[in-house]
Amino acid sequence: MVLEKINKLNDIKEIPKEDYPVLAEEIRTFLIEKISEHGGHLASNLGVVELTMALHLALELPDDKIIFDVGHQSYTHKILTGRKDYFDSLRNYGGMSGFPKRRENCCDVFDTGHSSTSISAGLGIVTANELTGNNSAVVSVIGDGALTGGMAFEALNNAATLKRNFIIILNDNNMSISENVGGMSSYLSRMRAGEFYNDMKNGVVATLNRIPVIGDKLVSKIRKTKSSIKQLVIPGMLFEDMGITYLGPVDGHNINDMVKIIREAKKLNHPVLIHVMTKKGKGYLPAEKHPSAFHGVSPFNIETGQPITRKDKPTWTDAFSKSILTAAKKNDKIVAITAAMPDGTGLKKFKKLYPDRFFDVGIAEEHAVTFAAGLASAGLKPYFAVYSSFLQRGYDQILHDVCIQDLPVVFAVDRAGLVGNDGETHQGIFDLSYMSNIPNMNIMAPKNKFELYDMINFSVDFNHPLAIRYPRGTAYEGLKEFRQEIRLGKSEYIYKEKDIALFAIGSMVETAVKVRELLKKDNYNVTLVNARFIRPIDEDIIMELSNNHNLIITLEENVLNGGFGEKVNRFILEQNLKTDVVNIAVPNIYVEHGNVSILRKEIGIDCDSIVTKIKNRYKSEMN
After folding, report:
1. Are 355 and 514 a contacting pair, CB within 8 Å?
2. CB neighbours (10 Å) of residue 88?
3. Which residues are catalytic?
4. Of 15, 342, 497, 535, whose CB neighbour count within 10 A is largest?
5. Dihedral angle computed from the Cα positions of residues 208, 257, 55 and 233, in that order, rounded to the nearest 10 degrees
C-alpha cells in the first residue's frame, strides 16, 4: 500500500508521480472506513483529496502555510502531516479534532470551525510575514459556499491592495452543506459551465489570429490592455476587477495540473485566486448522490450508506419543523429563513410546502438577521432558524437592526447547549449570555417537545424580538402532563415542596427531574420549577422560592458568565433576600470535542455531580 509510506510530514514528496492516483484512492478508502466507524465529516473530505495532495506537493511545509476555511475538510491534511494513526480517536474526548487545531500540529496554522474566515486570516499572516521579512507562501482555501459570507468579500477587497504573493484557492463544488444559492453561485456556475472560459478564450484568440496582417497584433494588444481576453469572455470578471489575478477554472482532481498551477501562482508578487472545481463526496457513490446527507455523519454501513443506529424518536429540530408548519398553515404572514441549512434546521418541509415564503440566504448570518428585520418592518412574521454558535455571528444585527426597533423577529435557536463532537467552535453555550443583555430581547426555552409547540404558538402573536432556544438530539417527552398556558415572563411549578428548589431552564429541566429523584431517595424535600423564560426573568417566583426554601439551585446549559443563574443571583442580591443560591452552569471555558455525556461529567453538570454539590452545600447551610 502506498498510504503505508505516509507517516510524517512531507513523506508524500517521496511518492513517485505514477502512484499519486493510487494514494488518492487509498486515502479515500481509509477515510470511508474510519468515518463509517467513528462518524465525522465525509463528503467534504472526499472531495478535496487530490487538492490537498497537490498543496502538500507544491508547498514547502511547515514554512509555507495552509489555512482551511471552516476546516471540516482537513482530514487528508491530517493524514499527510503524520496523524493517520490517530483517526480512531477522531472527535472523541481527548482525541484528534475534526478541525485544524494549532495545539495539535505545527501545520495547523489557524484554528477554524466557522466559514468565510480563511481569507482574512491568511491576509493577516501574509502581512505579518511582510513585516517580519518572512518570504514563505500563504494559501487560503475557501469553498464556494463560504464565499457567500460577507466577511470573505471584505477580505478580498483588502487583499487586492497587497504587493506580494497571496494564494486563494476557491474550492468550487457547488455546495456548502446544502446546495448553494444566490448570485455568487450563479456567477461561478456560468464560469464553470462547459469549460466556458478556457474554450472561449482559445476560440477568440484563434479567430483573431486568422485575420490577415493585423490579427496577431490585435491579440498582442488585447493581452496588454487592462481589459484582457478574460474580460471579453467572463462577464464582470469580479476577481480581476478587484485586482486579484484569476486562474481557472481548473480540475481539482488532476494532481499534476494542480501542482503546476500552484507553483506558478507562487511566483506572482500579488494576490492570485485559483478556481478549482471538485466533486463533493467523490469516490463514494452514496455521498456523491447525497452530499448534504453525508456532510456530517454518524457511524454508517459502508455498503448501504445507511446509519448504523437509526433514530426512532423525533429530535428537537423535528419538533420545531412540525410546529412551524402548523403555525404557517394558519398564518400566511409567517416566513422562514435559513443560512444555507434548510435540512439541518428543519425547514426542508417548509421549503417544499411554502416555497414563496422560504428564504435561503446562503452562509450569511449577519445578512439573514437584518433581512428578517426588513421583512418584519414590512408586516411579515419572520422565523430565522439557525444554530446557536452561528447566530453569534449576527450579534450586531440582532442588537442594532432587530432590537433597537423592537421588531417581531423570532430566532429559532437550534443546537443550544453542548453539541459534542464538533468541539469549541460549535458548542452552543453562549447564546443566553450574548442575547439576554440586549434590551427588548425576550428569550424562552422549552422543557419538552410539547412546550416547544406551545412556544411557537405563543410567538406567532408576540410583537417583539423573541428567541426560542432548544438543544441538539432527541426531544424530551417527559412531563407532558404539565402543560400550563405560556405567559410572558412566567415560570411553571412542576413539583412544589420546600427546603431545596431546583430552578431549571430548557434542556436542564430533564436533568433536574433526575436530580430530584436522586435527592428524594435520600429524603430531601425538593421543589422543581421550569423557568421557561430567561428574559424577562420571573421575579415573582424567585421571591416565592426565597421565602420557602433554604437553597435555590439554578440549572442551565450555558456558560455561567451573563447567564440565567447570574440573573437570579443579581435579583436576590438587589432584593436583599436571605436564601442561598448555587449556580449549575457550564464553566467559563471553551468546551472541547467529545460525547455530550462525557463532557457533562467533565464540566460538572451531570446528575451525579449536581447531586453531590447540592448535598454538600445543603449540609453546610444547615450546620
Report:
1. no
2. 11
3. 280, 365, 393
4. 342
5. 20
